[in-house]
Amino acid sequence: MAHMVFCVRNKKEMEGLDEPPFDSEFGQKIYKSVSKQAWAEWAERQKMLLNEYRLQPWTPQAQSFLVEQMTEFFFGDGAALPAEYVPPKA
Q1: Residue 32 belongs to a domain with what CATH number?
Q2: Which of 18, 30, 48, 68 falls between 20 and 30 A from 24, CA-CA?
């Protein structure tokens, strides 16, 4: 049976992640309250942030920034897009 959660992003019962994304309290919080769909949305947002800000994901500064953005994305107001961001044309 699938792991079900009440997704904090989509505000409804949905299939959750198969396992915590991080081995920490924050990872457990995500596991218990973020759906697979919302996690996929975050993965796309994270790629955009890495590209727009030209972040090096192995640096502590980039990791800290991404955790702040992730926290805001799931548990805050949603995190604003970069001012210069232009969505790709379909």
Answers
A1: 1.10.3880.10
A2: 48
